[in-house]
Specification:
This protein is an all-alpha fold and 371 residues long. It is built from 15 helices and four strands. 40% of the residues are buried.
Length: 371
């Protein structure tokens, strides 16, 4: 059986190792690192301390005023209808959709908490006043997001022990420039994902199967502003956007888009419930993210190139096949998993070398979340 056949004959939900039935299951899911799961990061704090944003001072100071104004300080509060909506709406969902939604909450919380930890660690380890202030504000925002998500998990008795998660989950070291590329994209694609969901459910409120989606519009504006912060840092340090670094930018663009596509195609019921098809949803998110990222990246991916979707589908099939081989166990399946993994690396290479679109950087960096 080749990867494509395995993919076609297997339900996407089999990507999940097991159902979430308890808080222990939820905590284990958050702790587990896979290729497509959110990770925790650390970086070179001394290098972060040397960052200079003086060349974008005017835009930077305006952004700091926005952070200080904290227009979302009262947003992440559950209203009186929240708990009743959860009981009423979730009782109508089938188990498959519930499991995909639990996975969505857990992975989203892990991602938000990852940002909170990273930003807080940078804050504690730098003396640069610009960077210290920025990291303080972003850690504040991500803490709120993670706490709000955890409240929704606690509705199902699946609350995550954030202290234990911080202590026990493994950390990946990234050089500062990799943090900038990856986190900028994570924040901007997070905005694009949330605003696309919010607009869809705004048009079709009957498909809003959980009250948390009502918070997404103002929530994703936090994500947008975080991305703006990294855009200003990169534009203030232009060497990060030149020479060999353009190849690194290309790598992170491909990696972030491919990871999202593979992950989203493992939870089709979630998108179906919202009235999306996973592929259509993902490409809308890619388009928004590509449009936004022109503010800082000198290239964008050609998502309309015929090889682009073909390679994403193949990567999804290979990811599925590797999960099946891992679940079945045995020497033969270990060998199969290795073959599938090598095929995935080669397919990623095809994606990487699709010709990119050159983009001229605008004189003004800042954008507004108008999507």
């Amino acid at each position: 059986m080749n990867a494509q056949t395995a993919f076609m004959e297997t339900d996407f939900t089999q990507m999940l190792v097991s159902n979430v039935e308890s808080a222990a299951d939820a905590n284990q899911r958050a702790l587990t690192n896979t290729v497509i799961s959110p990770r925790f990061y650390t970086t070179d704090f001394k290098a972060m301390d040397k960052l200079d944003v003086s060349s974008v001072r005017q835009e930077w100071d305006l952004m700091m005023q926005e952070y200080e104004g904290d227009n979302n300080h009262d947003h992440f509060q559950r209203d009186a209808e929240f708990a009743q909506e959860v009981k009423t709406l979730m009782s109508k969902l089938d188990e498959n959709l519930k499991q995909e939604f639990y996975d969505f909450l857990i992975s989203s919380l892990t991602s938000e908490f990852s940002g909170c930890i990273l930003y807080n660690e940078v804050r504690k380890n730098v003396s640069n006043p610009d960077i210290k202030k920025l990291m303080t504000y972003m850690a504040r925002d991500e803490s709120r997001h993670a706490g709000f998500l955890n409240s929704s998990l606690k509705d199902f008795n699946f609350g995550i022990d954030l202290g234990e998660l911080k202590k026990s989950k493994s950390y990946t070291f990234f050089r500062p420039k990799f943090i900038f590329y990856a986190t900028y994209l994570s924040e901007k694609i997070g905005y694009a994902r949330y605003i696309t969901i919010f607009r869809q459910l705004e048009r079709h409120p009957d498909k809003r199967f959980h009250p948390i989606f009502r918070w997404f519009e103002r929530w994703c504006n936090d994500e947008f502003r975080h991305g703006e912060s990294f855009a200003l840092i990169m534009r203030a340090n232009p060497k990060l956007l030149q020479g060999v670094n353009v190849w690194w930018i290309r790598f992170f663009l491909v990696a972030v888009y491919a990871t999202m596509y593979v992950r989203d195609h493992t939870r089709p019921a979630l998108h179906d419930a919202m009235g999306f098809k996973s592929t259509e949803y993902d490409f809308e998110v890619f388009r928004i993210t590509s449009e936004i990222s022109r503010q800082v990246f000198p290239i964008i991916l050609d998502i309309d190139h015929p090889q682009f979707k073909a390679s994403l589908d193949k990567l999804t099939a290979l990811s599925m096949a590797m999960s099946i081989a891992k679940a079945q166990g045995g020497l033969l399946n270990i060998l199969k998993k290795g073959v599938f993994a090598l095929s995935a690396v080669l397919e990623f290479g095809k994606l990487y070398f699709i010709p990119v679109i050159q983009s001229k950087l605008p004189s003004q960096v800042r954008l507004q979340p108008t999507w």
